[in-house]
Write a structure and sequence with these properties.
The chain is of the alpha/beta class. 33% of the residues lie in helices and 26% in strands.
């Protein structure tokens, strides 16, 4: 059963630096009135840390990488070789009101279905593979996606506000642009009964303000 009745798929054509990528997601959460799936790339060598993540641990794990702190939870993610997507579920909808475990289960089940079309088998983790590591892909938690050997394939972080649910996901199976487009469309078709490709135009003044006060601010990045 689909998660949404309708969905807008944004294959964001602009590769963005970490602070801008995060600011765009927050802007989508604040403004979207229908669910949105955004698929996007990164400009430069970026990693992200969860809201409660420790910057020093991330820096020790990966050299020569720039860091941005997400507004969502979760662990440390190296975005130099992943497939990154965001789901926005506006307030008032079923997914935005679901418990965290249920929203993770529904969304990662959809990702698993999309990956199966590429002959990439995965399953939802029960949490038994959890290691406690700060690095996201070394610590499969409940409802993450893992392969047959228990290696983590996909994880995500979430945040709920009065605007709805922000789900920021990463899949450790990078792909070229054509396959990325196909994967995005497959995921959209699993998530929604009806979906369409759309384009968004984030207002630069608002994005710049969010970068300046949060995602590009040293105090924000080094807060933990």
């Amino acid at each position: 059963m689909a998660v949404f009745e309708q969905l807008r798929l944004w294959m964001d054509p602009v590769s963005r630096a970490g602070p801008e990528a995060m600011a765009v997601d927050e802007w989508l959460l604040e403004t979207a009135v229908t669910p949105v799936l955004r698929v996007y790339g990164w400009r430069g060598n970026w990693g992200s840390i969860g809201y409660f993540g420790k910057l020093a641990e991330a820096q020790a794990a990966f050299a020569q990488i720039d860091w941005v702190r997400r507004w969502t939870g979760g662990g440390t993610v190296d975005h130099r070789a992943d497939w990154t997507y965001t789901v926005i579920a506006p307030a008032g909808g079923k997914l935005a009101g679901a418990r965290g475990s249920e929203s993770y289960r529904l969304l990662h089940s959809a990702v698993a279905a999309a990956l199966r079309a590429e002959r990439i088998d995965s399953r939802l983790s029960s949490g038994a593979e959890q290691t406690g590591a700060a690095l996201c892909f070394e610590n499969p938690v409940s409802h993450d996606l893992v392969d047959a050997g228990g290696r983590k394939l996909a994880g995500a972080g979430q945040r709920r506000t009065r605007h709805g649910l922000l789900h920021q996901g990463s899949v450790a199976v990078p792909c070229e642009s054509i396959i990325s487009q196909e994967r995005g469309e497959r995921l959209a078709s699993v998530l929604a009964d009806m979906w369409r490709i759309d384009d968004f135009h984030p207002p630069q003044a608002i994005i710049a303000q969010k970068i300046g006060t949060r995602y590009g601010c040293g105090k924000w990045t080094t807060r933990c």
